[in-house]
Amino acid sequence: MVYPHAALRIGNKVGMSNTTVVATMSVVIGDNVMIGAGVTIVDSDFHSLNPIHWHTHDDAMKMKRLPVNIGNDVFIGMNSTILKGVTVGSNAVIAAESLITQNIPANEVWGGNPAKFIRNNKII
Prior knowledge:
Number of helices: 1
Oligomer: single chain
Helix content: under 10%
Number of strands: 14
CATH topology: UDP N-Acetylglucosamine Acyltransferase, domain 1
Shape: globular
CATH class: Mainly Beta
Structural class: mainly beta
CATH architecture: 3 Solenoid
Strand order of the largest sheet: 2-5-8-11-13-14
Order of helices and strands: EEEEEEHEEEEEEEE
Largest sheet: 6 strands, mixed
Radius of gyration: 15 Å
């Protein structure tokens, strides 16, 4: 789903299956990215975190939005979730069932809930 005035850019040779992407601000997916089944990528909280705003016209306006950027040649394992404000560097690998709440540097393998560094993934 792409909200009005939001941007969703998907590069060349991107494979997805049963993937949910919600762009309220900006989601950018690079080239040669493989996204496993059941992955969710979102760039907002979908509502204010302050209960005073819930069920009011201010709710959507007060929700936090931060862009998501996924580099080139990235693999995202099935049933992983990438949350708002995250950048995944090129050549990164995200293990299945991972919760990505922080930036993933290029050429690294991360996994878990919340995701943690596993090892380098440098191409030689």
